[in-house]
């Protein structure tokens, strides 16, 4: 099996990055992570990249040409899939058009509900009965691309936003790899 070169974009702890790295050790898992990109110099996920000898790029998104820098680095590493794993910047239409390959994102709700930020607080405020996570393709609209995979759980009456976050993250560690397998199953 020829594994697809993949880049993971992160902004924080990198727990989904860590989960994906563990999955790449499986012979039949269809990707190898060849690059990690972050916009946050304090992102703990950089530690996972370093521990696993994965090159990483710390990008200043305030620079005018930051997307070109990323695109050049992605080309250099022959990337065919980008996984957005807690990356807290919107990917521009220009970037999407220039990459022209697969970009997927993980979102902590059952899309199309609760797009954007402050998801867990909004879920509780709306008295939802269940929630979960969604892996979807990226397009020009925020959290609106084709759904690839979803997982859900029922909300307990005493759950806090922190409880929802913890439960959702546990689902994400299964849902993200499943989505990647689904993408490459027939390729």
Describe the structure.
The chain is 35% helix and 24% strand. It has helices at residues 15-24, 45-51, 66-76, 93-99, 119-125, 161-184; strands at 4-10, 31-38, 56-58, 81-84, 102-107, 130-137, 147-154. The protein is an alpha/beta fold and 187 residues long. The chain has a single domain (4-184), classed as 3-Layer(aba) Sandwich (Rossmann fold). Helix 1 packs parallel to helix 6 (161-184) and helix 5 packs across helix 6 (161-184). Helix 2 links the parallel strand 2 and strand 3. The mean pLDDT is 95. The relative contact order is 0.16. It has six helices and seven strands, in the order E-H-E-H-E-H-E-H-E-H-E-E-H. It has a seven-stranded mixed beta sheet with strand order 3-2-1-4-5-6-7, with helices on both faces.
């Amino acid at each position: 099996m020829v594994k697809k070169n993949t880049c993971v974009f992160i902004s924080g702890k990198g727990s989904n990055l860590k989960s994906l790295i563990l999955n790449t050790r499986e012979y039949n898992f269809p990707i190898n992570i060849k690059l990690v990109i972050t916009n946050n110099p304090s992102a703990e996920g950089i530690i996972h990249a370093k521990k696993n000898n994965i090159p990483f790029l710390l990008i200043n998104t305030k620079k005018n040409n930051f997307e070109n820098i990323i695109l050049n680095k992605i080309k250099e590493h022959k990337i065919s899939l980008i996984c957005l794993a807690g990356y807290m910047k919107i990917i521009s239409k220009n970037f999407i058009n220039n990459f022209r390959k697969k970009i997927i994102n993980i979102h902590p709700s059952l899309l199309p509900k609760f797009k954007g930020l402050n998801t867990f607080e909004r879920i509780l405020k709306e008295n939802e009965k269940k929630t979960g996570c969604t892996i979807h393709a990226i397009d020009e609209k925020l959290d609106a691309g084709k759904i690839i995979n979803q997982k859900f759980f029922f909300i307990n009456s005493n759950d806090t936003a922190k409880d929802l976050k913890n439960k959702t993250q546990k689902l994400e560690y299964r849902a993200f790899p499943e989505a990647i397998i689904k993408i490459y199953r027939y390729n």
